[in-house]
């Protein structure tokens, strides 16, 4: 072996994905789309970004080799990985695919990472841990997680034979790192003695049992990652769903209501704010229930989703809106916002009035608005202020409210 051996990776993408076949209508999981590219491409990019990596061997199903190689070439043109690569046909079992991949490694390669394309989320930090442990002299390195379930060993009739000591167990992942010549020897032995294994490390372990000096340093475990799960069952497909990008949006609302005077003839409503009746307050002139706060809020919600204004949806000359609870306006505006991919995250409301005094009611208003919008209390703020006897609120002729609503909107609803 040369003084500083090259590190290459074998990326396994030759499986048939039988456990997922029904859910994917027969499509092999390693080729399912993830962020617009085939799944295996994610691992290729993560591996290639490591400065230590000198090249990649892709192992594809024999029956699709040409097609997949052409696809890969296109991806390499679009997003050059800056590394030499090769594509080779896989075999029947995983270990056969690894063996085929090993054969394609160049002479200069002294260390190899073997990675399942079905684990797209391995992080660079995890791969570095594997490489560092290899550097320190292990023959094999596997990322592993402590086991949280109690594990029992059973016979073919499901009779429990023994309960294993959980503290001494690790669930192992890939990439697994190896001294190349040790792994090659292990694969030769596996072929000769017909070992049937589910990972490469177990071959090296067997080799070490048989011939201890053939795998100096043995196999060590470094911390794995929960996120580095293997896409295996239909439930795992959820992880591949595209995350809808979201954009922060805001909406502003403003409303005024006049207090009823002695000479007024229009409909006078008892004051309601945020859906809460305010006793001993001036009557309000209004077609609906006159809830100035919920009207401002409705407008702000509509503002978040390009929904026009309250008058567009609930005209004040329409009979059905007469003395109507303004909570309905808020709920309908919120439903429209949802329809347009907009989710309210917080609201900040201010009531401006000389009378009545609102301090004692603020908390009650807040609770009611939070309940109405199905938001946590922490996401609803209510303020009250006067205008220092200035203007129409200062002269106690009316009340106004302003509302600011913050929301997240699905990016595809913004085009
Ligand atoms: N793999 C491979 N060649 C095989 C079998 C598996 O390259 N003959 C690869 C898979 O593509 C996958 C990894 O090994 O990236 C781990 O295997 P697994 O999760 O078992 O995938 P499949 O064998 O494809 O799935 P299943 O066992 O459900 O058929
Ligand atoms: Mg399999």
Write the SSE topology.
Elements: E1 6-12, E2 33-34, E3 37-38, H1 39-48, E4 53-60, H2 65-78, E5 85-89, H3 94-103, E6 109-116, H4 124-135, E7 140-146, E8 152-154, E9 160-163, E10 170-172, E11 176-179, H5 180-193, H6 200-210, E12 219-223, E13 246-258, E14 268-269, E15 272-273, E16 276-277, E17 284-285, H7 292-304, H8 310-313, H9 326-339, E18 342-352, H10 362-373, E19 380-385, H11 391-394, E20 398-410
Parallel strand pairs: 1-4, 1-6, 4-5, 7-12, 18-19
Antiparallel strand pairs: 2-3, 6-11, 7-10, 7-11, 8-9, 13-20, 14-17, 15-16, 18-20
Helix pairs in contact: 5-6, 7-9
Provide a concise account of the structure shown.
This protein has 415 residues and is an alpha/beta fold. It is built from 11 helices and 20 strands.
**CATH architecture type of the largest domain:** Alpha-Beta Complex
By CATH, the superfamily of the largest domain comes out as Spore Coat Polysaccharide Biosynthesis Protein SpsA, Chain A
What Rg, in angstroms, do the CA atoms define?
33 Å
In round numbers, the mean pLDDT is 94
Question: Into which percentage range does the β-strand content fall?
Answer: 25-35%
Specify the biggest β-sheet.
8 strands, mixed
Shape designation:
elongated
CATH-assigned fold name of the largest domain: Spore Coat Polysaccharide Biosynthesis Protein SpsA, Chain A
Poorly predicted parts: none
Distance between the termini: 58 Å
Helix content: 25-40%
Number of strands: 20
For the record, the CATH class of the largest domain is Alpha Beta
Number of domains: 2
Small molecules bound in the structure, each named once:
cytidine-5'-triphosphate, magnesium ion
Number of helices: 11
Counting helices, strands and paired strands, the structural category is: alpha/beta
Region (2-C-methyl-D-erythritol 4-phosphate cytidylyltransferase): 1-249
Keywords: Isoprene biosynthesis, Lyase, Metal-binding, Multifunctional enzyme, Nucleotidyltransferase, Transferase
Site (Positions MEP for the nucleophilic attack): 166, 230
Family: In the N-terminal section; belongs to the IspD/TarI cytidylyltransferase family. IspD subfamily.
